[in-house]
Amino acid sequence: MSVQETPQAVAVSVEVVVFSIRDRRLKLLLERRGAEPQRGLWALPGTFLRPDEDLDGAAHRALAEGTGVTGVYLEQLYTFGRPDRDPRGRVVSVAYYALMPSDRLRLCAAADAEAVGWFALDELPPLAFDHGEIVAMAHGRLRAKLGYSTIAFQFLGETFTIPELQAVYEIVLGKPLDRRNFRKWVLSLGQIEETRELRREGRHRPARLYRLADPGDIVFFK
Fold first, then answer.
1. How many C-beta atoms lie closer than 10 Å to residue 117's C-beta?
2. Domain 11-146, what fold?
């Protein structure tokens, strides 16, 4: 550092992009800002970093305090630091994304938020700050990781059918997939195992239930 340079006060925040699949659509969890700046606009759950916590801890706290969401898969995405991104001053934001199974959707709004809600990714309202840019990057990262990891299983319960898993891929990718090719590909990965149980889906005949062979972590297979 040059002796002429003066350290600049910089605030650090975290923002979390929370994805879930509801009504066969990829949806995003947003909270409506109840305070200035940009009061009334929808925004990602977030918080400023406290002196005594690390980034992951702040991200988990932002979800728990802002929406009531806990215990979900969370991964650091990118750091956003454009000088004019926040009218309050110099704010550097570390973004995360989280994936939430559809059966864990109990939400509560934070004290400084007017409401929380789920929005389809292709029908988002105007977002505060640069949160639209953050969402676009998170969606791109999610789509890319479908092809070489077990990240898609974070949207499912402990057990699932192959058609249910295929639906996750189709919804996130935004395109249909060939049923036979998908089944062959998934089974060839060696990441799922049969439970010897069946589940009936509508009027179709019962389908075999599967589970992850290694449910503890995201597995990379390519």
1. 15
2. Nucleoside Triphosphate Pyrophosphohydrolase (3.90.79)
The domain segmentation of the chain, as residue ranges, is 11-146, 151-212
**Spans in the chain with pLDDT lower than 70:** 1-8, 102-114, 202, 222
Which residues lie across from 16 on neighbouring strands? 96
Across 103-113, b (16+ Cβ under 10 Å) vs e yields: eeeebebbeeb
Residues 170 and 43: their CA atoms lie apart, in Å, by 26
Q: Which amino acid is at 116?
A: V
| Residue 78 half-sphere exposure toward CB, CA atoms < 13 A | 16
77: nearest Cα among 25, 21, 16: 16
* Beta carbons within 10 angstroms of residue 169's beta carbon: 19
What are 159-173's pLDDT values in tens digits?
A: 999 999 999 999 999
Query: What single-letter DSSP state applies at residue 185?
Result: H
Domain 151-212 has CATH 2.60.40.1940: no
In terms of Cβ atoms closer than 10 Å to its own Cβ (0-12, 13-18, 19+), residue 150 is: buried
